[in-house]
Amino acid sequence: MDAMNKNKQLLLILMLSVLITMVASYNVPAIFTFGDSIFDAGNNRFKKDCTIQANFTPYGQNYFHHPTGRFTNGRTVPDFFCQFLGIDLQKPFLQAAMEVNNNKSQGYPSNGINFASAGSGVMNATNADEGVMSIHQQLEQFKLLMNQNRIDKKLVQQSLFLFESGSNDIFNYFIPFETPTLDPDAFVDVMLAEVGYLIDQIYQLGARRIGIFSLGPVGCVPARALLPGATVTKCFGKMNKMIKKYNKGLETIVMSVPLTHPGAVAVYGAVYDIVQRFRAIPQRYGFSNTSTACCGVGVLKGMSQCGKEEFSVCENPNEYLFWDFFHPSEHTYKLLSKALWSGKPSRIRPFNIQTLANMTVVIPP
Question: Tell me: the pLDDT tens digits for 317-365?
Protein backbone atom coordinates (compact mmCIF):
# COMPACT_ATOMS: atom_id res chain seq x y z
CA MET A 1 0.00 0.00 0.00
CA ASP A 2 2.84 2.39 0.87
CA ALA A 3 4.61 1.53 -2.40
CA MET A 4 1.40 2.24 -4.33
CA ASN A 5 0.99 5.63 -2.60
CA LYS A 6 4.63 6.42 -3.33
CA ASN A 7 4.14 5.59 -7.01
CA LYS A 8 1.06 7.82 -7.11
CA GLN A 9 3.04 10.65 -5.51
CA LEU A 10 5.85 10.21 -8.06
CA LEU A 11 3.32 10.19 -10.89
CA LEU A 12 1.71 13.36 -9.52
CA ILE A 13 5.09 15.08 -9.24
CA LEU A 14 5.90 14.05 -12.84
CA MET A 15 2.57 15.39 -14.07
CA LEU A 16 3.08 18.65 -12.22
CA SER A 17 6.59 18.98 -13.66
CA VAL A 18 5.24 18.53 -17.19
CA LEU A 19 2.47 21.05 -16.50
CA ILE A 20 4.92 23.62 -15.12
CA THR A 21 7.16 23.11 -18.16
CA MET A 22 4.19 23.64 -20.48
CA VAL A 23 3.18 26.82 -18.68
CA ALA A 24 6.72 28.20 -18.50
CA SER A 25 7.58 27.64 -22.17
CA TYR A 26 5.68 29.62 -24.76
CA ASN A 27 4.93 28.85 -28.38
CA VAL A 28 6.06 32.28 -29.61
CA PRO A 29 9.56 32.48 -31.13
CA ALA A 30 9.27 36.05 -32.41
CA ILE A 31 7.37 39.34 -32.26
CA PHE A 32 6.51 41.58 -35.20
CA THR A 33 5.49 45.09 -34.19
CA PHE A 34 3.67 47.82 -36.10
CA GLY A 35 2.87 51.24 -34.70
CA ASP A 36 4.08 54.66 -33.63
CA SER A 37 6.29 56.09 -30.87
CA ILE A 38 4.57 54.00 -28.21
CA PHE A 39 6.15 50.91 -29.80
CA ASP A 40 9.08 52.33 -31.83
CA ALA A 41 12.40 50.71 -30.87
CA GLY A 42 14.44 53.23 -32.84
CA ASN A 43 13.51 53.06 -36.53
CA ASN A 44 13.52 56.84 -36.91
CA ARG A 45 17.20 56.94 -35.89
CA PHE A 46 18.05 55.31 -39.21
CA LYS A 47 16.08 57.78 -41.35
CA LYS A 48 18.16 60.83 -42.12
CA ASP A 49 15.14 62.75 -43.40
CA CYS A 50 13.07 62.06 -40.26
CA THR A 51 12.74 64.99 -37.85
CA ILE A 52 10.84 63.12 -35.11
CA GLN A 53 13.63 61.69 -32.98
CA ALA A 54 14.53 60.51 -29.51
CA ASN A 55 18.19 59.86 -30.29
CA PHE A 56 19.52 62.25 -27.65
CA THR A 57 19.72 62.42 -23.87
CA PRO A 58 18.00 62.01 -21.48
CA TYR A 59 15.97 59.41 -23.40
CA GLY A 60 16.86 55.89 -22.29
CA GLN A 61 18.61 57.12 -19.15
CA ASN A 62 17.02 54.74 -16.63
CA TYR A 63 17.46 51.37 -18.33
CA PHE A 64 19.66 51.35 -21.42
CA HIS A 65 21.65 54.31 -20.02
CA HIS A 66 21.88 55.84 -23.49
CA PRO A 67 19.38 56.94 -26.16
CA THR A 68 18.02 54.05 -28.25
CA GLY A 69 15.38 55.91 -30.22
CA ARG A 70 12.66 54.85 -27.77
CA PHE A 71 10.54 57.79 -26.65
CA THR A 72 10.80 57.06 -22.94
CA ASN A 73 13.38 56.64 -20.21
CA GLY A 74 13.65 52.87 -20.65
CA ARG A 75 11.69 49.96 -22.07
CA THR A 76 8.34 49.84 -23.85
CA VAL A 77 5.57 47.23 -24.00
CA PRO A 78 7.15 45.03 -26.73
CA ASP A 79 10.39 44.99 -24.70
CA PHE A 80 8.61 43.72 -21.61
CA PHE A 81 6.74 41.10 -23.65
CA CYS A 82 10.11 39.84 -24.90
CA GLN A 83 11.27 39.59 -21.29
CA PHE A 84 8.16 37.60 -20.36
CA LEU A 85 8.63 35.30 -23.36
CA GLY A 86 12.35 34.85 -22.78
CA ILE A 87 13.43 36.11 -26.21
CA ASP A 88 15.79 38.91 -27.24
CA LEU A 89 14.50 42.41 -27.96
CA GLN A 90 13.64 43.04 -31.61
CA LYS A 91 15.79 45.27 -33.77
CA PRO A 92 14.22 48.15 -35.68
CA PHE A 93 13.57 47.13 -39.28
CA LEU A 94 15.83 49.83 -40.72
CA GLN A 95 18.73 48.73 -38.52
CA ALA A 96 18.29 45.08 -39.48
CA ALA A 97 18.05 46.00 -43.18
CA MET A 98 21.20 48.13 -42.96
CA GLU A 99 23.14 45.28 -41.35
CA VAL A 100 22.00 42.83 -44.03
CA ASN A 101 22.82 45.27 -46.85
CA ASN A 102 26.26 45.97 -45.37
CA ASN A 103 26.95 42.22 -44.96
CA LYS A 104 27.12 42.61 -41.19
CA SER A 105 24.37 40.04 -40.87
CA GLN A 106 23.58 36.97 -42.96
CA GLY A 107 19.84 37.45 -42.62
CA TYR A 108 17.00 39.07 -40.77
CA PRO A 109 16.60 38.26 -37.06
CA SER A 110 14.71 35.10 -36.09
CA ASN A 111 13.19 36.77 -33.01
CA GLY A 112 11.09 39.21 -35.05
CA ILE A 113 11.31 42.79 -36.25
CA ASN A 114 10.04 46.14 -34.99
CA PHE A 115 8.56 48.20 -37.86
CA ALA A 116 7.05 50.97 -35.67
CA SER A 117 7.88 54.58 -36.48
CA ALA A 118 7.43 57.43 -34.00
CA GLY A 119 5.11 60.16 -35.23
CA SER A 120 3.38 57.91 -37.74
CA GLY A 121 -0.31 57.22 -38.06
CA VAL A 122 -2.74 54.85 -39.72
CA MET A 123 -3.29 57.61 -42.31
CA ASN A 124 -0.49 58.03 -44.85
CA ALA A 125 -0.63 61.82 -44.60
CA THR A 126 -0.05 61.97 -40.85
CA ASN A 127 3.32 63.67 -40.27
CA ALA A 128 4.45 62.57 -43.74
CA ASP A 129 6.41 65.82 -44.08
CA GLU A 130 8.40 64.81 -40.98
CA GLY A 131 9.81 61.74 -42.71
CA VAL A 132 8.02 59.09 -40.62
CA MET A 133 6.90 55.67 -41.87
CA SER A 134 3.12 55.27 -41.87
CA ILE A 135 1.41 52.00 -41.00
CA HIS A 136 0.95 51.38 -44.72
CA GLN A 137 4.69 51.84 -45.33
CA GLN A 138 5.50 49.53 -42.41
CA LEU A 139 3.20 46.93 -43.94
CA GLU A 140 4.91 47.27 -47.32
CA GLN A 141 8.30 46.71 -45.67
CA PHE A 142 7.05 43.51 -44.06
CA LYS A 143 5.36 42.39 -47.27
CA LEU A 144 8.57 42.89 -49.25
CA LEU A 145 10.55 40.73 -46.83
CA MET A 146 7.95 37.98 -47.08
CA ASN A 147 7.76 38.14 -50.87
CA GLN A 148 11.56 37.91 -51.05
CA ASN A 149 11.55 34.92 -48.65
CA ARG A 150 13.72 36.86 -46.19
CA ILE A 151 11.54 35.63 -43.31
CA ASP A 152 10.41 32.02 -42.85
CA LYS A 153 6.63 31.76 -43.17
CA LYS A 154 6.42 29.05 -40.51
CA LEU A 155 8.16 31.42 -38.10
CA VAL A 156 5.61 34.12 -38.94
CA GLN A 157 2.70 31.74 -38.35
CA GLN A 158 3.99 31.00 -34.83
CA SER A 159 4.84 34.61 -33.98
CA LEU A 160 3.04 37.33 -32.07
CA PHE A 161 1.93 40.41 -34.01
CA LEU A 162 1.43 43.67 -32.14
CA PHE A 163 -0.41 46.75 -33.41
CA GLU A 164 -0.86 50.18 -31.81
CA SER A 165 -1.42 53.36 -33.82
CA GLY A 166 -3.79 56.30 -34.19
CA SER A 167 -2.70 58.79 -31.51
CA ASN A 168 -0.93 61.06 -33.97
CA ASP A 169 -3.80 61.02 -36.45
CA ILE A 170 -6.28 62.18 -33.82
CA PHE A 171 -3.92 64.62 -32.07
CA ASN A 172 -3.14 66.27 -35.41
CA TYR A 173 -6.88 66.56 -36.12
CA PHE A 174 -6.95 69.30 -33.48
CA ILE A 175 -3.92 71.22 -34.74
CA PRO A 176 -5.38 74.28 -36.52
CA PHE A 177 -2.98 74.52 -39.48
CA GLU A 178 -5.52 72.97 -41.83
CA THR A 179 -9.28 72.67 -41.59
CA PRO A 180 -10.27 68.98 -41.47
CA THR A 181 -12.21 67.82 -44.52
CA LEU A 182 -13.99 65.13 -42.51
CA ASP A 183 -16.07 65.38 -39.35
CA PRO A 184 -14.72 63.44 -36.32
CA ASP A 185 -16.87 60.35 -36.86
CA ALA A 186 -16.03 60.07 -40.55
CA PHE A 187 -12.35 60.61 -39.80
CA VAL A 188 -12.35 57.75 -37.29
CA ASP A 189 -14.18 55.50 -39.78
CA VAL A 190 -11.41 56.08 -42.34
CA MET A 191 -8.80 55.25 -39.68
CA LEU A 192 -10.56 51.99 -38.82
CA ALA A 193 -10.74 51.01 -42.49
CA GLU A 194 -6.94 51.35 -42.65
CA VAL A 195 -6.56 49.14 -39.57
CA GLY A 196 -8.86 46.54 -41.10
CA TYR A 197 -6.74 46.52 -44.25
CA LEU A 198 -3.55 46.00 -42.21
CA ILE A 199 -5.07 43.02 -40.38
CA ASP A 200 -6.22 41.48 -43.67
CA GLN A 201 -2.77 41.87 -45.19
CA ILE A 202 -0.70 40.51 -42.31
CA TYR A 203 -3.12 37.57 -42.09
CA GLN A 204 -2.54 36.78 -45.76
CA LEU A 205 1.20 36.89 -45.04
CA GLY A 206 0.83 34.35 -42.24
CA ALA A 207 -0.03 36.22 -39.03
CA ARG A 208 -2.16 34.10 -36.70
CA ARG A 209 -1.67 35.61 -33.20
CA ILE A 210 -2.58 39.29 -33.20
CA GLY A 211 -2.61 41.78 -30.33
CA ILE A 212 -4.47 45.03 -31.08
CA PHE A 213 -4.12 47.69 -28.42
CA SER A 214 -6.38 50.64 -27.85
CA LEU A 215 -5.10 54.18 -27.62
CA GLY A 216 -4.66 55.65 -24.17
CA PRO A 217 -6.43 58.85 -23.12
CA VAL A 218 -4.48 61.04 -25.55
CA GLY A 219 -6.53 64.05 -24.49
CA CYS A 220 -4.76 63.85 -21.12
CA VAL A 221 -1.15 64.03 -22.35
CA PRO A 222 0.86 67.10 -21.25
CA ALA A 223 1.24 68.13 -24.92
CA ARG A 224 -2.39 69.19 -24.93
CA ALA A 225 -1.04 72.47 -23.56
CA LEU A 226 0.06 73.16 -27.14
CA LEU A 227 -3.47 72.98 -28.56
CA PRO A 228 -5.90 75.89 -28.81
CA GLY A 229 -9.14 75.17 -27.00
CA ALA A 230 -7.66 72.52 -24.71
CA THR A 231 -7.66 73.22 -20.99
CA VAL A 232 -4.66 72.27 -18.87
CA THR A 233 -6.69 71.76 -15.70
CA LYS A 234 -8.45 68.70 -17.10
CA CYS A 235 -8.25 66.34 -20.06
CA PHE A 236 -9.27 67.49 -23.54
CA GLY A 237 -12.76 65.99 -23.76
CA LYS A 238 -13.31 66.36 -27.52
CA MET A 239 -10.12 64.47 -28.25
CA ASN A 240 -10.87 61.68 -25.82
CA LYS A 241 -14.34 61.32 -27.36
CA MET A 242 -12.71 60.56 -30.73
CA ILE A 243 -10.24 58.23 -29.04
CA LYS A 244 -13.05 56.23 -27.43
CA LYS A 245 -14.92 55.89 -30.73
CA TYR A 246 -11.75 54.64 -32.41
CA ASN A 247 -11.07 52.20 -29.56
CA LYS A 248 -14.59 50.83 -29.79
CA GLY A 249 -14.02 50.21 -33.50
CA LEU A 250 -10.74 48.43 -32.77
CA GLU A 251 -12.50 46.06 -30.41
CA THR A 252 -15.12 45.33 -33.07
CA ILE A 253 -12.30 44.41 -35.47
CA VAL A 254 -10.82 42.06 -32.86
CA MET A 255 -14.15 40.35 -32.28
CA SER A 256 -14.57 39.75 -36.02
CA VAL A 257 -11.11 38.25 -36.62
CA PRO A 258 -11.97 34.58 -35.84
CA LEU A 259 -14.98 34.83 -38.17
CA THR A 260 -13.32 36.61 -41.09
CA HIS A 261 -9.82 35.15 -40.77
CA PRO A 262 -9.99 31.38 -40.16
CA GLY A 263 -7.25 30.08 -37.90
CA ALA A 264 -6.31 33.51 -36.55
CA VAL A 265 -6.80 34.68 -32.98
CA ALA A 266 -6.83 38.33 -31.87
CA VAL A 267 -7.02 40.08 -28.52
CA TYR A 268 -7.96 43.64 -27.59
CA GLY A 269 -5.86 45.45 -25.01
CA ALA A 270 -7.94 48.06 -23.19
CA VAL A 271 -5.06 50.51 -22.65
CA TYR A 272 -7.41 53.48 -22.26
CA ASP A 273 -9.17 51.87 -19.30
CA ILE A 274 -5.92 50.71 -17.71
CA VAL A 275 -4.37 54.20 -17.84
CA GLN A 276 -7.54 55.82 -16.52
CA ARG A 277 -7.33 53.46 -13.55
CA PHE A 278 -3.75 54.63 -12.94
CA ARG A 279 -5.02 58.21 -12.97
CA ALA A 280 -7.97 57.45 -10.67
CA ILE A 281 -5.95 55.72 -7.92
CA PRO A 282 -2.33 56.73 -8.59
CA GLN A 283 -0.93 55.87 -5.17
CA ARG A 284 -1.87 52.21 -5.61
CA TYR A 285 0.40 52.06 -8.65
CA GLY A 286 3.27 54.08 -7.26
CA PHE A 287 2.50 57.38 -8.99
CA SER A 288 2.85 60.76 -7.32
CA ASN A 289 2.18 62.71 -10.52
CA THR A 290 -0.21 61.74 -13.34
CA SER A 291 -0.57 65.07 -15.12
CA THR A 292 2.87 66.66 -15.60
CA ALA A 293 5.70 65.21 -17.68
CA CYS A 294 8.87 64.19 -15.86
CA CYS A 295 10.99 65.77 -18.58
CA GLY A 296 10.07 68.89 -20.54
CA VAL A 297 9.44 72.59 -20.29
CA GLY A 298 6.58 75.01 -19.65
CA VAL A 299 2.96 74.31 -18.71
CA LEU A 300 2.64 70.65 -17.64
CA LYS A 301 6.18 70.34 -19.07
CA GLY A 302 4.26 69.84 -22.28
CA MET A 303 5.31 72.85 -24.32
CA SER A 304 8.38 71.24 -25.89
CA GLN A 305 9.94 67.81 -26.28
CA CYS A 306 12.17 66.48 -23.56
CA GLY A 307 15.84 67.18 -24.32
CA LYS A 308 15.14 70.34 -26.27
CA GLU A 309 15.30 73.98 -25.21
CA GLU A 310 15.79 74.64 -21.48
CA PHE A 311 14.22 71.42 -20.23
CA SER A 312 14.34 69.93 -16.76
CA VAL A 313 14.07 66.32 -15.59
CA CYS A 314 12.35 65.11 -12.42
CA GLU A 315 14.35 63.21 -9.82
CA ASN A 316 11.98 60.22 -9.66
CA PRO A 317 10.73 59.19 -13.14
CA ASN A 318 9.13 56.03 -11.75
CA GLU A 319 6.61 58.16 -9.89
CA TYR A 320 5.45 59.90 -13.07
CA LEU A 321 2.81 58.59 -15.43
CA PHE A 322 4.36 60.61 -18.27
CA TRP A 323 8.03 60.69 -19.17
CA ASP A 324 7.77 63.49 -21.72
CA PHE A 325 5.06 65.64 -23.30
CA PHE A 326 3.41 62.72 -25.09
CA HIS A 327 4.82 59.43 -23.83
CA PRO A 328 4.57 57.23 -20.72
CA SER A 329 7.44 56.54 -18.35
CA GLU A 330 9.05 53.11 -18.22
CA HIS A 331 7.19 52.48 -14.96
CA THR A 332 3.89 53.09 -16.75
CA TYR A 333 4.92 50.78 -19.58
CA LYS A 334 5.87 48.09 -17.11
CA LEU A 335 2.50 48.25 -15.38
CA LEU A 336 0.71 48.28 -18.74
CA SER A 337 2.72 45.28 -19.91
CA LYS A 338 1.85 43.24 -16.83
CA ALA A 339 -1.84 44.10 -17.20
CA LEU A 340 -1.83 43.10 -20.87
CA TRP A 341 0.30 40.00 -20.30
CA SER A 342 -1.67 38.38 -17.50
CA GLY A 343 -4.62 40.68 -16.86
CA LYS A 344 -8.32 39.84 -16.58
CA PRO A 345 -10.91 40.62 -19.30
CA SER A 346 -11.40 44.18 -18.07
CA ARG A 347 -7.76 44.78 -19.09
CA ILE A 348 -7.46 42.57 -22.19
CA ARG A 349 -10.01 40.34 -23.89
CA PRO A 350 -11.16 37.74 -24.78
CA PHE A 351 -7.98 36.56 -23.04
CA ASN A 352 -4.54 37.89 -22.19
CA ILE A 353 -1.23 37.82 -24.08
CA GLN A 354 0.12 35.03 -21.88
CA THR A 355 -2.77 32.79 -22.90
CA LEU A 356 -2.32 33.80 -26.53
CA ALA A 357 1.38 32.90 -26.29
CA ASN A 358 0.56 29.49 -24.83
CA MET A 359 -1.78 28.53 -27.64
CA THR A 360 -0.66 25.99 -30.19
CA VAL A 361 -0.94 27.23 -33.75
CA VAL A 362 -1.62 24.46 -36.24
CA ILE A 363 0.43 25.16 -39.36
CA PRO A 364 -1.04 23.67 -42.55
CA PRO A 365 1.30 21.45 -44.58
Answer: 999 999 999 999 999 999 999 999 999 999 999 999 999 999 987 665 5
Could you count the other beta carbons within 10 Å of the beta carbon of residue 229?
Answer: 10
Q: Which of 55, 24, 51, 60 is nearest to 333 (CA)?
A: 60
Tell me how far apart the alpha carbons of residues 45 and 321 are, in angstroms, rounded to a whole number.
Answer: 25
Which run of H or E residues covers position 200?
helix 184-204
Q: Does residue 58 have a cis bond before it (omega within 30 degrees)?
A: yes
Residue 8 has pLDDT above 80, yes or no: no
Distance CA 274, CA 100 (A): 39
Rounded distance between C-alpha atoms, residue 185 and residue 242, angstroms = 7
Active site residues per annotation: 37, 324, 327
Closest Cα partner for 90 from 65, 69, 73, 115? 115
Question: Are the CB atoms for 268 and 254 separated by under 8 Å?
Answer: yes
The model carries a pTM of 0.91
Task: Decide: 183 and 252 in contact? Cβ < 8 Å.
Answer: no
**What is the residue-averaged pLDDT of the chain?**
92
**Interhelix angle for 135-147 vs 93-101, to 10°?**
40
What integer pLDDT is reported at residue 334 of this predicted model?
A: 98
Buried residues in 155-171 as b, exposed as e (16+ CB within 10 A): ebbbbbbbbbbbbbbbb
- Express each pLDDT in 262-295 by its tens digit: 999 999 999 999 999 999 999 999 999 999 999 9
